[in-house]
Every structure is written in structure tokens, then in C-alpha cells.
Amino acid sequence: MQAMPASVRFVRVHFKGLLALSPPSTSHTLYSTSSSMVAQTSSRWATMMATSTVRRLGVEARGVLVVRQLSASASCSTLSYTSLCATEPEQERVSNGWNKRNFLGSGQQFTCREDFASPFFYIQQQQRRSMSTTGAAKKGLVAVEEARRFMVDCLVQANTPLAHAKQQADLLVEADYRGHFSHGMNRLEMYINDLHKNACNGKAVPSVLNETPATAWIDGNNGLGAVVGNYCMDLAIRKAKEVGVGWVCAKRSNHYGIAGWYTLRAMNAGCIGMSMTNTSPLASPTRSKEAALGTNPISVGAPGKDGDGFVLDMATTAVAVGKIEMQRRKNEPIPVGWAQGPDGHPTTDASVAFETACLMPLGGTELTSGYKGYGLGAMVEVFCGVLAGANYATKIRKWTHAGADSEADLGQCFVAINPACFAPGFEGRLSDLTSILRNMPMTDPNHPVLVAGDPELHHMAMVDKEGGLAYHVNQIKTCTELSERLGVKPIEVI
Ligand SMILES: NC(=O)c1ccc[n+]([C@@H]2O[C@H](COP(=O)([O-])OP(=O)(O)OC[C@H]3O[C@@H](n4cnc5c(N)ncnc54)[C@H](O)[C@@H]3O)[C@@H](O)[C@H]2O)c1
Questions:
Q1: Residue 275 DSSP SS3
Q2: Which among 33, 117, 186, 224 could disulfide-bond with 37, CB atoms 3.0 to 4.6 Å apart, if both were Cys?
Q3: How far is the CA of 46 from the centre of ligand 1 (A)?
């Protein structure tokens, strides 16, 4: 073995302490491993930070400091590993999410006691702040599989074939699992109402309108968003494998949930994925006090080495409307810059914001470059509504909890790119990029730098640790009402 600088030995000792607690079945040899093996045995962001620091130690004194900080935090936060039940089938506890499958690939689960000094504590705080949709104080814990069961039962009861109900439920559960509660169970009632009003057809299957080796134009036939989206992304992936890139656009689709679901699908197949959708008007163009564009999310996902990756999944408004909805459900205010009141000025009242339905674009006002978010939202329309020949901007009907009275005809865009057609070693470089970013000097040692997708990873680990999805009590109430209305077995709270 090569002689190591003292600082590297310092890191070895630190991690040896952690790995000593891992189950004997694991065969990780920390010091000679690549960052990936370490990543598989610990919370990804923490180990990535440390292992890439190992690589850079001796070059940058700053790296040593980062590891020392991490070590200090670790020592006061009782880091430990718990082995998951060896007989438990992975499928039962692991969602379809790309990150999660890789994250838990080692069969271990990371647990930690929350400690004020710990960076993990910070992440949890960050979750609460940035996602603002987590369970908060009042919550009902529901097992992931029970949430899925409940969703499938409700959708089937609303005249949706089982296979379609499962696709839709998988998507909604994944949203909750990743911490985007606004786009999980919270959306179920709206889908059910749409199905009952025939604004959406649960039985519809997409059809191809035009196709070339690299492109396809799809008619979603007013089917469920997940059914149309899965079909389109799978087609894009197939084309990417054949000719390097697949670009698929759909018209006549419906609300497709978290945009990241589809990019994760592409990443699962070793591709770079991109996905966008237009949505009902909810955001005002800069200088307007009326909504013309939707929250029009964009997701780009790229696979790194051994479970690392970049999963950007974001609304082009300051937040997704669901977050305002969740604040309203919780009777809590919203921060300045999320939404406008009826006078066109920012409001902090979640109910006023929800009723006005006029979100601010990413960036906020013109002074804070909100026009860039407005530009991104309009760009989504170019690739979705305009390119697919679907509805766009103010032509899209409004959508409320009561459901819609007419077809949405949303436009959506799904892209898969095969990195093997470009410079060799994409995944390694991607992981190097994320390591560089995660290792950047912190403004606060308790607030580590993250890359897109890290907060969701941490949320998934937290759900596993807690043993279920922490729904707000009002969400459970809505589920109970839904079960009574549809005559399905009520959701079981742990
Ligand atoms: N289907 C629809 O109509 C629709 C519309 C809008 C939004 N959505 C979905 O709603 C969800 C929430 O959207 P959002 O914009 O509110 O998400 P968000 O603001 O919580 O996160 C946006 C992105 O930033 C990343 N991120 C968060 N904190 C970070 C940090 N400190 N450092 C680095 N990266 C960080 C996240 O990983 C994520 O990729 C998304 O899944 C989106 O697709 C869907």
C-alpha cells in the first residue's frame, strides 16, 4: 500500500470508527476503495465529502479542515449503522427511485441521532425549511406500502384499471418518499375528482402520432399523467439506446406529478434524462399581476458512479403551488417572494396566496431577476405546449381540488441521452463534479454544500428510519373522507 500523508490516516481513523459498526456481512475495505464503496456504506453526502477530501488531501489544507469538522460533528451525533433485515426483499422497502435503490444497495441503512451540532441535524432543518411539506409537529405515520395500497384502491374504485392505478400510485408514493408531499397523497383527491368528472380517462393508453428514429410525437389520449409519462420516457430511452438520443413530446396528457420521476427512470437505464411539463396558469409573467404560465417544472437527472447522481427537479416558480397548499393546510404563513396577493404585491398569507393563485416566478420580483424564472417557464411552454401542439399558457384550464370540468390537454417533453455516445467516463466525471461541489468551503461548518437530489436522498433515509411517511394530520383527515366517499379500506396510521 502506498504511504499516506498523516491527514489521510486521520480520515481513515475517523471512518474506521463508523465502519466498525457495520454488519460483518459487508466486505468493504475502506482505505483502498473508491469513493463509491464508502458511499454505499454511509449517508451519501457525508461520505462523498470525506472520500473526495481523502483524494485531495495533501493538496489542499482546506480538505483536512472539512474532514475534521465532519469528524467532530460525527462524534457528537452518535453515528451508527443498522443492518436491515436480511430476508426483507429489497422491492418491499425500496421505491422505484434510482437513487434509493443504489443508496441502499449495500443492504444497510444509515441512522443517526439528531444532534444540534451535527450536519445531519442541519439537513433535517433544511428539509423542513426548503421542502416545507414534511409532517411538522402533528403527523400520522403511514407505512410506504400502506400509502401505496390506499392510493391503488382509491384509483381502482374510480374506474382505473389496476395496472394504471399502480403506475399512478408508484409516482405519488415516490413524491412523498422524496419529501415532495405536495405532489403525493395530496394530489390523489384531485385525480379522483378528475376521473369522476371524466376530465381524465383512467383507461386511456397513449398512441404514436409521428415517429423518427430519435423523436416521437405522442397523443396521451387524455390518460393519467403517469401512464402517459412512463410510456413517453420509456420510448425516449429506447431511442437513446438505439440512436443516442430520444426526444418525445406528448399532447393531451394530464398532471404528471414530480418531473424527477421520469428523469430517474432514464437514469435507471444509464441515460441522462430530462423532463418538463406545462401546467394550469398560476404564475404571473414579470410586470403582470395575472397568471399566464404554470409552475412548469423542469427536471434533469444524470447518473454518476455507483449510486451517485445529479437530480435537479424544480418548479420554474419560486415554489410549487403544492407548497403553498401545504402551508395553508397547516395554517402557517409563506415566505415573502413565493406569491402575489390580488394587488400584485408579495403576500405571506398562505390562504390569500392560494386563493389569488398568482405565484412569483423563480427569482421573485424584477429587481431580484424574476424575469429569468419567467423565461424558464416560457421555455417549458416552447418544448411542451407549443412543440407538442397541446394547450399552453392561458389556454390551459384551471385545476382545483374539486377537479376540472374539461380536458387539460397538457404538453409534456421527455428526453433521454445516451452518455456512451460522447466522451468516455461520463459517470466518473459526474461523480467528480458532485464531489467538487460538495467539498466547496462551507459558509457554516454545520451547513454542508449539497447537490441537487441530496435533500431528497436524505428524506428517503429519514422515512426509512421513522418507518413510514409522516403525513400531516389534515392529510390523514382528507384520506379518511376519501375512503368513506369511495368505500375503500381506510388508510392505516401506525
Ligand atoms: N407536475 C407539475 O405540474 C409540477 C409543477 C411544479 C412542481 N412540480 C414538482 O414539485 C416538486 C417540488 O418542486 P420545487 O421547485 O418546490 O422543489 P425544491 O425547491 O424543493 O427543490 C428543487 C431542487 O433543488 C434541489 N435542492 C434543494 N435544496 C438544495 C440545496 N441546498 N442545495 C442544492 N440543491 C438543492 C432539490 O434537490 C431539487 O432538485 C418537484 O418534484 C417538481 O417536479 C410538479
A1: strand
A2: 33
A3: 21
